[in-house]
Amino acid sequence: MQKTLQKKIESIEAKIHELIDQPNINLNSPKQLAALLFDDLKLPTNKQRSTNIDVLESLIQHHPVIALIIDYRKFQKFYSTYALGLQKYVNQQRIHTEYSQTSTTTGRLSSNNPNLQNISVRNEDTIVIRQVFVPDSDDYVLLAADYSQIELRLLAHLSNETKMIEAFKQGIDIHNQTAMDVFHVSSDEITSLMRRAAKAVNFGIVYGISDFGLSEQLKIDRKEAAAFIQKYHQSFPRISAYMDDVVMSAQVNGYATTLFNRRRMIPELLSPVYAVREFGKRAAMNAPIQGSAADLIKIAMIRLHHELKNRSAKSRLILQVHDELVVHAHKDELIWLRPLMKEIMEKVVQLNVPLEVSMNQGSNWMEAK
User: Fold this and answer.
1) What's the pLDDT tens digit per position in 185-227?
2) Which domains does the chain have, with CATH numbers?
3) What spatial distance separates the first Cα and last Cα of the chain, rounded to whole Å?
């Protein structure tokens, strides 16, 4: 992968130099890049003369070199972080990440040296790095189990929002349901923008999304984004009421609690600074959802570990990535391991909505997704 990427980066670099006729420019230097874009090519700029990804994407129509620079950066980062970066952590053909239980405010495990939680499955360029993670021998496969929309299911349960609960119980696509309720359309009238907006708010509501945040994400007018959030709260009034209650409770007590009564202290709510207090409110809204998801998967991990130990299994739990558990599974044990793992994860706690787990196995981590 390192060699392949090296050739790809060199090829993109050559195309860039050909387009701008400046063979000595260092593309990794923001200062030199800014001089090229805003002085030599006379592209529109702001006072900061920034060359970050948002600025580059806004300039993509102005010059063909911009798309190449974006590609160059993307592959350069992938090269240094994964193809080259992961090699220094290899010890006798294995990589052992370090997990911390106290690095995140939500209670989720964090992975470092290397961080194996940022190998996104939604990014076609980074997911290929999962191919290099393989079982010990042909007797094993990697078995991955992933919670489906765990945070939205917890939100539905905690807020007791009937429409959302019913959608999950009936197995209806929650983003389609939200689009139907908010835009007052039938399922066959939903446009891709409607679904994208519904999805953005469904996930964003957990983090206290603002009209500015939604407008940036969907590339729409801020007023339009504000109107959409307002419609969402009108369609799902119990979610809005629940969020208000959580914030009020945290202001009184100084903390928010998860479903399992673990506390997250939120001193920011008492800050004299408005921006800090607003951050505290968003943290209070988020803590019961993200925190409960963190607790839930840890309980599932503990139960699975004990079951494997009690059965003297050859299979081992080897990785946790957000809502996904990965087991180094012996092929002879799959017949009972798959249903066992699914049952433990889906029955870890009784909610008003069903917990759903999808499972895949493969000869590498990418195949198991």
Assistant:
1) 888 888 888 888 888 888 888 777 788 888 878 778 888 888 8
2) 2-83 (1.20.1060.10), 124-150+295-362 (3.30.70.370), 152-288 (1.10.150.20)
3) 20
Instruction: Determine the Cα–Cα distance for residues 110 and 19; give it in Å rounded to an integer.
Output: 43
**pTM of the prediction?**
0.85
Task: Work out the pLDDT band at 62, boundaries 50, 70, 90.
Answer: confident
Digit-coded pLDDT (tens) for 32-43 = 888 888 888 888
State how far the Cα of 321 lies from the Cα of 324, in Å rounded to an integer. Answer: 5
How is 263-321 classified by DSSP, letter by letter?
EEE-GGGG-SSHHHHHHHHHHHHHHHHHHHHHHHHHHHHHHHHHHHHHTT-S-EEEEEE
Whole-angstrom distance, CA of residue 193 vs CA of residue 182: 13
Cα 279 from Cα 270, distance rounded (Å):
11
Say how far apart CA 243 and CA 348 lie, in whole Å.
25
Residues forming beta bridges with residue 358, ordered by sequence position: 146
